[in-house]
Design a protein that fits this description.
The chain is mainly alpha-helical and 273 residues long. It has 15 helices and no strands. This is Carbohydrate ABC transporter permease.
């Protein structure tokens, strides 16, 4: 009986936390279908009194939504792909090769994870500006090309791959490149899926760095473009909620694609722990 009460209390707490987390997104979704006059009204309701699609239909007229969306999607996909590959490659080397200084290198990578990102903004900006990479997508891709978190995650995962499997492939004449691409990567699909979700989310919602490095409006990302709705004398909340609602879709799609492997990887880590 005591265990059942504990379970009910835990489920109730999780339900409260879930509702608290999801409610702002639900409010944003319904507000995207409200006219601005209703959004600004003192008497608020969750469901719109007057449903309208004007906020969605007029997005392209208010700012170049399609271009901003395409820019963000392209950059997020490239950054995610590059980060996954470099993280897997470095993780494989650190997990399966023995060489002097290996632990020191891994410790240095862990140390980079402890440095606040804000501390590196000024020197990083100065460096990329000196290289002439302002208004260049390379300035958005290169800083994310090597991820300390990704290397750490993949190193820990690949450390569990049996050495006997790799040795058998080497005895059969397989090259190290072949082993990495055809054996190690397929065996690491679960952690790769988890890293893909995290990295795509970080790249998609990044605001400050694109704001600093990209001045050309046609090259700007969606996170920065959403500030267009904040005017000098007011904010177009309806358009902002509509654009933000659409901007959530790619993140949901990526999560749904990798969901099963992400959950499987988390479950395997829990069992291992």
């Amino acid at each position: 009986m005591t265990k059942r009460i504990q379970t009910l209390v835990l489920e109730a707490l999780l339900l409260i936390v879930g509702i608290t987390t999801v409610f702002p997104f639900v409010w944003m979704l319904f507000s995207a279908f409200k006219p601005n006059s209703e959004i600004r009204a003192l008497d608020q309701t969750l469901l719109p009194r007057e449903w309208t699609l004007d906020n969605f239909l007029s997005l392209q007229d208010k700012f170049d939504f399609i271009r901003f969306f395409a820019n963000s999607l392209g950059i997020a996909l490239v950054v995610t792909g590059v980060t996954i590959y470099t993280s897997c490659l470095c993780g494989f080397v650190l997990a399966k090769y023995r060489f002097p200084g290996r632990n020191a290198i891994f410790g240095f990578i862990l140390g980079t994870m402890m440095i606040p990102w804000a501390v590196t903004i000024i020197p990083r900006y100065t460096m990329f500006a000196a290289w002439g990479l302002r208004d260049n997508y390379l300035s958005l891709i290169l800083p994310a090309a090597m991820s300390g978190f990704g290397i750490f995650m993949m190193r820990q995962s690949m450390d569990d791959i049996p050495d006997a499997v790799l040795e058998a492939a080497r005895i059969d004449g397989a090259s190290e490149i072949y082993i990495f691409h055809r054996i190690v990567l397929p065996m690491s699909r679960n952690p790769i899926s988890a890293l893909a979700i995290f990295q795509f989310l970080w790249a998609w919602e990044d605001y400050l760095w694109p704001y600093l490095m990209i001045d050309n409006e046609k090259m700007q990302v969606l996170a920065v473009g959403l500030t267009t709705f904040n005017g000098r004398y007011g904010t177009d909340y309806g358009g902002l909620f509509a654009a933000t609602t659409i901007s959530v879709i790619p993140v949901l799609v990526v999560y749904l694609i990798f969901q099963k492997r992400f959950i499987a990887g988390a479950a395997a880590a829990a069992v291992k722990g």
